[in-house]
Each structure stands twice: as C-alpha cells, then as structure tokens.
Design goal:
mainly beta; 6-stranded mixed sheet; 4-stranded antiparallel sheet
C-alpha cells in the first residue's frame, strides 16, 4: 500500500519561498516517476511537476517553470519541491503522487497547505 506524508507548507508572503517534503513507504521508491500536484479551492487538481526515477529528468507546468524545483532522495524515499518567488495563485493544497489512473491523480496523502498572502 502506497503511503505518503507531505509536509513543509505554511503561510508565506508573495515572493517568499517554501520547501515541501514527501516521505513515502509501501513501494519501491526508486522504481517510479513521481509527481507533485495541487488543488486550489474551487478548482480541479493541477499537475505541477514530475521527476524521473533517477532524478535526472524533471518537467514543470508552465505556471511554475523557473520558480519551482523538484528533487528526490532515493536513499531516504523522499520527494521535495523547492518553491520560490511564490505568488498568490500558488495557494493550494499540494500532494505528492505516484499514480494517475483513469484520468485522475491518486492522492494517498492528506497534502500540505500552501497559502501565499500578504
């Protein structure tokens, strides 16, 4: 069973930074491409970024490109998302995800809330 615990969210002013973490268990972490997605109030789930199993290849949504950096530590089974130059539109609950099934992101964790506001 996939188990993840996201952390690192909080309240930050526009232009600020946060580093999200996702501790995982229940699967062979280093075998999988992994993702960060987010959900803002009243909106659907949005893909944010992805990282290959070895951490060499990353991809980002246009809305976060150049501001967010995704990484992973395969020795600690942990995923990271470094977020900089945060904007109010980045406000959302952020989830780390392994599976995308039948058009839906499978979100096994509770997520971590990021609020960007002055």
């Amino acid at each position: 069973e996939v188990h993840v615990v996201e952390s690192g969210g909080g309240l930050v002013q526009p232009g600020g930074s946060l580093r999200l973490s996702c501790a995982t268990s229940g699967f062979v972490f280093s075998d999988y491409t992994l993702f960060w997605v987010r959900k803002a109030p009243g909106k659907g789930v949005e893909w944010v970024s992805s990282i290959g199993s070895r951490g060499r290849v990353t991809n980002y949504a246009d809305s976060v490109k150049g501001r967010f950096t995704m990484s992973r530590d395969n020795t600690r089974n942990t995923l990271y998302l470094q977020m900089s130059s945060l904007k109010p539109e980045d406000t959302a609950t952020y989830y780390c995800v392994r599976d995308h099934l039948n058009g839906d992101w499978v979100r096994p964790g509770q997520g971590t809330q990021v609020t960007v506001s002055s």
